[in-house]
Specification:
- By secondary structure, the protein is mainly β.
- It has one domain: Porin, CATH 2.40.160.20.
- About 10% of the residues lie in helices and about 60% in strands.
- The protein has an 8-stranded antiparallel beta barrel with strand order 1-3-4-5-6-7-8-11. A two-stranded antiparallel ribbon has the order 9-10.
- It is elongated.
């Protein structure tokens, strides 16, 4: 089979009867104002005992699976990804009850998305899809752990949208490399109150807003297989 046909299949420009499945590494370089505000409040209320301040994670690492199809010049895709991130603080055990040495917060994010894009360049070994529009439904949970305690919680649903560019590079018939950089942004601010409650971080509900955004750059790099 010619490489041109192979790439044409991957870009899903010609036939709705052909699908491709891709998967690989997924990285989010996030700006989460909700977590930033929590970290700042956490540090402020524990300033006299902290030896290492809490910081919001700048990167969430994970994996993705993506199924795509299309009609004519439009491509369509649906996918799932999972990411993890970590927040950590350290304390002086001589100044804490029970000799606590710090707190770990493990974050887990599940993401379902669907998108559509336009195929603007097709060569024998290269496909460019731009712009590609994406709608994401995120759910984020966390587990906070100290020397003496462990609690879990979640932030509910986080709605994101994004714009991206897909690059498909053919290797051999039936196999390609896919690269998709994007920028994702919050449609609405999300509620981060549960993490304050699970970590016993005080705030004044009349003056302090626990809501925040979850945005940032996103990069998926993987391999793709096509099926006829």
């Amino acid at each position: 089979m010619k490489i041109l046909v192979f790439l044409f299949v991957f870009s899903v420009t010609a036939s709705s009867q052909i699908l491709f499945l891709s998967g690989g590494a997924d990285y989010r370089f996030s700006s989460a104002s909700g977590l930033d505000k929590f970290a700042e409040r956490y540090n402020t209320t524990r300033a006299n005992i902290l030896t290492k301040k809490m910081e919001a994670p700048g990167t969430f690492n994970g994996w993705f699976l993506n199924l795509s199809g299309g009609i004519s010049k439009l491509s369509f895709d649906i996918g799932y990804s999972q990411h993890s991130g970590k927040m950590k603080s350290e304390t002086d055990p001589l100044l804490t009850t029970g000799g606590g040495t710090g707190r770990n917060i493990d974050l887990t994010m599940n993401n379902f998305w669907f998108g559509t894009g336009f195929n603007i360049a097709v060569t024998e070994r290269f496909i460019l899809i731009f712009p590609n529009f994406e709608a994401d439904i995120l759910s984020m949970s966390f587990k906070t752990t100290t020397n003496t305690d462990s609690k879990e919680g979640d932030f509910g649903t986080i709605a994101n949208a994004g714009i991206s560019m897909k690059i498909i590079i053919g290797i051999i018939p039936g196999l390609a490399i896919s690269v998709q950089p994007s920028y994702n942004f919050s449609l609405l601010d999300s509620e981060f109150k549960p993490i304050y409650e699970r970590t016993n971080t005080p705030y004044d509900p009349d003056t302090f807003d626990t809501k925040g955004s979850f945005s940032g750059f996103h990069l998926r790099i993987g391999a793709a297989l096509y099926f006829m």
